[in-house]
Amino acid sequence: MSEIVKITIAGKEFEVQKDLVSQAMEKNEPISIVDENLVINTKAEIATRETNLKEIHEKVGADFAVKKAAEKLKIDITELSEKSVSALVEVATKKALESAKIEPDKKVLELTNDIKTLQSTISGLETEKNTLSGQLVEFKQNTIRKGEYERAIPENLAIPKQDMITILEARIKTTLDDSGRLVVLGEDGQVMKNPTTLDPLPLSDVTKDFFAKNQHFLKGASGGNGGGDDTTPAGGKKPLSQYVAEKQAAGVQTTGQAFAKECQDLANEGKLDLNA
Fold first, then answer.
1. E strand or H helix at 8
2. Helix axis angle, 104-152 relative to 203-213, nearest 10°?
3. Labelling 3: which of 162, 171, 191, 202 has CA 20 to 30 A away?
């Protein structure tokens, strides 16, 4: 059986037969890795997918709202020139005028109520669209941020990688700018920038600087300027590594935004040392 070697691509580790690698190198050919569970997308592909999903959800939501409003107004959807609110109002107004000569007051009242119903439906759709847009922004930010962390975190971690990502999410604040780029925020809430070019600092650079200043998170390190260690509280505060270990021993989930926020809140209260 051929010996297995490990290859890391974009932060993900894969096992490949050593013979396959050797033969490809001897023939100067690309190494082909086929895995039905493996999907690698570029940032451009992810951005295109998110844009397309947003357009699809907005169109489906709008079509659904028009269809439901047409049912309430007892209008056949095929009578509309297009699936839009303006086309629906046009047909509803025409029908109301046609039947108004029989019972004018009653029809005007019905039309008024129908319009209120339509406006309520549209308002609900707007709320749903805004919620979906927020979820897409959060998904994009989380995807980009975790990818940057995967690439920037050193291999010689003293704690599990996922725990380290939780710590980084509590210490390093990020957001998306108007162009959809992931940017890092400083303590003053402003975007951190390269002092020479004034370009936003990449998250990977900020992450590397974090480890340069907090080497106690790395194996074989003599310590950093983060203050304290994993067992000795700094200034009476509980070390973050100790807090994470206690939570894990209690069966508490220590990954994700919720736990990161919990840690940050405790740090703000002076009860937790995020540097230890």
1. strand 4-9
2. 50
3. 162
